[in-house]
TrEMBL record:
The name this protein goes by in its record: Gluconate kinase
Residue intervals of the Carbohydrate kinase FGGY C-terminal domain: 257-452
Keyword Transferase: yes
GO BP, one annotated term: D-gluconate metabolic process
Record-linked CDD domains: ASKHA_NBD_FGGY_GntK
Organism of this sequence: Levilactobacillus namurensis DSM 19117
Span of domain Carbohydrate kinase FGGY N-terminal: 3-247
Family: Belongs to the FGGY kinase family.
Length: 517
């Protein structure tokens, strides 16, 4: 039997999955790390804690598998987009990894959007202007931490840092580079205007390589700890969004992937770059002739966690005592409330928002509360609000690529039958849930197999996944959702004029922040 490892470096953990070359999972490890939120709008991670989690994950999978020589063909990476680490001349971190969820560059992102430069850059990079991007973070650092900025010799993301630690070379794949806001998707190179705006030069960035590029010659010490032949080829891989599409077999035009994990996204693959004239969706590289167009949202499962922790703390304790999943208990409570939550609408913008409004100042709200509404209504409204927002992304995406032919859904939410049905009902479309629970890691492994010649085409991923569930929309819910979704959209537009004001008040009167695990 031959094997491939997919490594998915996520926002809260790294998942290391061993697959055989038929795409069947043969080993799994999930290693967590903390998110640091020491000040308002901060969202950072320690790059060395992430690196340790990767080493631990690889070590665990290799030891459990007990592979023979030559059975492991390679390792391929997926990584979260938009991270930024400043390195000194010795490649030592000067900062933690500033993640996509960090909003401290909001002022500078707003300026780019308002002065017209942002539109120019978006039309060349395919990356919407937002504080998530390394472009905005670099401007913020240059202006507000100039001494630190001047110390930096290199500007990299988490995957590039990991590759350097393992192999001693700095290189960055087109897919991760594409998400920095510094990469021209039509020239397939760093963009001169973006670099000038950011205040850096191309010799401060890693060498650009394709997502199928291979690297070998791992550091002997790390190879010994992991128990892996240092000659094992590592495939650069891509960013997590495009690989999630690949991992659920949503790479045929018209097939949409909807993902809800900690955050969420709606994405579809095209054969060439496509730009939205209104700047609402991204365009990211996967591989030759495969570009992923879509929109990410900040607020997915993290909103459900907030509802559980802040509104249902007693139930959380009860669930722990009963040794049942607290989220299952909450979805059971929500299922007792009719579709539409009796007119209660929730805007899930607890951490600002990306697509489709691209407003880091956006804030959450319940609308329509009456004395007849209960906590059960609030939890259902929160779940519906997350899906409403994803649907608004789909509406924007339809203007760029046309109506979807089918929907493949994945992510942590997919474990919930209630949430899956909500997705089908609000989108009014059949929703298929692939059997593979780790679509992004499978996408990384599939791209790795293709790069190494183990499969002939990426479309062979269809042979790797089964179908766990298909949900059909329920006509009985159409009236409620067709009435409420337009109200949700109109409210979003009306509230947007006040988001900045309330966000500025909150920044002047910061609440206690914490380190989340």
């Amino acid at each position: 039997m031959d094997y491939m490892i997919g490594v998915d470096i996520g926002t809260t953990s790294v998942k290391t999955v061993l697959y055989d070359t038929k795409g069947k999972m043969q080993g799994y490890s999930n290693n967590l790390y903390p998110l640091y939120q020491d000040v308002p709008d901060m969202a950072e991670e320690d790059p060395d804690e992430i690196f340790s989690a990767i080493i631990d994950g690889l070590t665990t999978v290799m030891r459990k598998a007990d592979l023979k020589d030559g059975q492991l063909h390679g390792v391929s990476f997926s990584a979260a987009m938009h991270s930024l680490i400043l390195l000194d001349e010795n490649h030592k971190p000067l900062t933690r990894a500033i993640t996509w969820a960090d909003n401290r560059a909001v002022k500078y992102a707003d300026e780019l959007r308002e002065n017209g430069v942002g539109k120019q850059l978006y039309e060349k990079t395919g990356t919407p202007i937002h504080p998530m991007t390394p472009l905005s973070k670099l401007i913020w650092l240059r202006n507000e931490k100039p001494d630190l900025f001047k110390q930096a010799r290199w500007f990299v993301g988490i995957k590039e840092y990991v590759i350097y630690k393992l192999f001693g070379t700095l290189q960055e794949d087109y897919s991760i580079a594409n998400a920095t806001g510094l990469f021209n998707i039509f020239k397939m190179d760093w963009d001169d205007q973006a670099l000038e705006v950011a205040g850096i030069t191309r010799d401060q960035l890693p060498k650009l390589v394709d997502t199928t590029d291979q690297i070998s010659g791992m550091n002997q010490d790390y190879a010994g700890v992991i128990g892996m032949d240092p000659k094992t080829p590592f495939v650069m891989g891509a960013s997590d969004g495009p690989l999630a599409n690949l991992g659920v077999d949503a790479i045929t035009p018209g097939v949409v992937a909807v993902t809800i994990g900690t955050s969420g996204a709606v994405r579809v693959v095209t054969d060439k770059p496509k730009i939205d004239p209104k700047g609402r969706v991204f365009c990211y590289y996967l591989s030759k002739d495969h570009w992923v167009v879509g929109g990410p949202v900040n607020n997915g499962g993290i909103v459900f966690r907030w509802v559980r922790d802040q509104l249902f703390a007693p139930e959380k304790i009860t669930a722990e005592q009963m040794q049942v999943d607290s989220y299952d208990l909450l979805t059971e409570i929500a299922s007792k409330v009719p579709a539409g939550s009796d007119g209660l609408i929730f805007h899930p913008f607890l951490g600002g928002e990306r697509a489709p409004i691209w407003d880091a100042n956006a804030r959450g709200s319940f609308f329509g509360l009456t004395r007849t509404h209960s906590r059960a209504h609030m939890v259902r409204a929160a779940l519906e609000g997350i899906v409403y927002n994803l649907y608004t992304v789909m509406l924007a995406l339809e203007e760029v690529v046309g109506k979807p032919s089918s929907i493949q859904a994945t992510g942590g939410f997919a474990r919930s039958a209630l949430w899956r049905q909500m997705l089908a009902d609000i989108f009014e479309q059949d929703v298929t849930i692939p059997e593979s629970p780790e679509g992004t890691a499978l996408g990384a492994a599939t791209l790795g197999m293709y790069a190494l010649g183990l499969i002939d085409d990426l479309s062979e991923v269809k042979n790797f996944i089964g179908v766990a569930n298909v949900h059909h929309p329920n006509p009985e819910t159409y009236e409620a959702y067709r009435t409420l979704v337009p109200i949700y959209i109109r409210l979003s537009r009306q509230l947007q004029s006040e988001y900045k004001n309330i966000a500025e008040f909150q920044r002047k009167h910061p609440q206690q922040v914490s380190k989340e695990k």
